[in-house]
Amino acid sequence: MAERYQLLYLSRLSSDTTPLCVAEIVRAARQKNQAQRIRSLLVFDGLRFCQYLAGEAAPVRALADRIRADPRHTDFRLLHEGVLRDPSPLSRSSLGYALCYDDSLDRIEQAGGAQAIELFARLLPSFDREPGSPRP
User: pTM score > 0.85 for this model?
Assistant: First the structure.
């Protein structure tokens, strides 16, 4: 069995893209992530995306590369990547979606590295997760 891998990034919504694209991102990503056995949570604050990805290393890295090249995203910043040693902070969802209304994404960005993953996991209950989404 391949080693489990995790990645956390932050990006900004492109200035020539509206937040209406987020629904399409979520819909398409759920199908693709499920096919690649990637678990994910996309957090959006109206301007920025913060996404946690977990799965086998090659598909997770390939997905991050596609996101980085996606014109709807700018200022892609990799906050952490590496082997997933602890249980994933996510359920088995191919892509969960949540809104953030405070400075949590600022705090995650400032933390960086393994601390960003730990902070992300601690902040999960504070995100406004879509109805029916499993809680941590």
Answer: yes
The residue assigned the tokens 């990645």 is 7
Residue that has been written with the tokens 């399409």 in this structure: 24
Look at residue 90 and tell me if it is in a domain. yes
| In a domain? residue 136 | no
Say which CATH number the domain at 81 has.
3.30.70.100
Q: Read off the pLDDT of residues 20-71 as tens digits, 9 standing for 90 and up.
A: 899 889 998 988 999 999 999 999 999 999 999 999 999 999 999 999 999 9
Helical (H) or strand (E) element with 59: helix 57-69
Residue 135 lies in a domain: no
How many CA atoms within 13 Å lie on the side-chain side of 87?
A: 5
What is the signed CA dihedral for 56, 10, 42, 92, rounded to 10 degrees? 30
Domain count, the chain: 1
**Among 46, 89, 51, which Cα is nearest to 68's?**
51
Residue of 95, 98, 68 lying closest to 81 (CA atoms): 68
